[in-house]
Amino acid sequence: MKIAVLLLVVSLSSLAADLKLKDYDWNMTDVLSKGYTKEALYTRMDRDFIKTGSSICSNRALMWAHNFKQNNRLDTAKIFLFYTKKKGDLSLKTWWYHVSPVINEGGKVWVMDAGFPGWITGPQTKEEWLYKFADSTYCKEINANETDLVELIFNGQVFPHDTAYGRHDCYYKIVPHTIWTPEVLAQNLLGVNSEGRPVRTERPEIEREELYQACLEATASKLGRVFGSSKKQCKEYAGI
Hints:
Blueprint: H1 2-13, E1 19-20, E2 27-28, H2 38-43, H3 57-72, E3 77-83, E4 97-105, E5 108-111, H4 126-134, E6 139-141, H5 147-153, E7 162-163, E8 166-167, E9 170-176, H6 182-190, H7 208-219, H8 222-226, H9 231-238
Parallel strand pairs: 6-9
Antiparallel strand pairs: 1-2, 3-4, 3-9, 4-5, 7-8
Helix pairs in contact: 3-7, 5-6, 7-9
């Protein structure tokens, strides 16, 4: 049986191909080319050091993306979901966005949201994930040239149902794994920050200071951070 599984992985890896992201000079590594499967990667995602019950999604996603790169040599991506007033299973929450890591297996995008044990138990297609969190698959992909939509991200609140592009229940954008928060996403696409000042748009690697901050917030409570909990571990983790 083990030999058969190994031969299957070798066979699949020979067909592997990287996937280029729309609007970015960024290729997602096909996990098959490294001998992995989406299921195996999902099972190994850290849920111990990273506190899934008390951390926010952008911090978890940055750390998991870093782990994929450091531990598995994978260039991955993230999917940012922006809500309108329509909500799905999370209707009692006040989220205006959600984000999760994304990988490429065999030229297909898979969402790796390990932040909800028991509710999400494995990799999901983009459509499955959008439906899970927005109760809809009628979501519009944000394009880099749709600057009016990108500028809405700076507002930090739910998107309107109706825009110049029609009526949609939600909006999303798949971005390189180096993007941390919605604000960083908007800055990256527009080339300016929320004050209109130019910023560097290319992000070939995760910013160490951002990774350090994400680590602090994802591995310790607010009270714990006051007393320096995880500070030493996060400095080592981020390499600073």
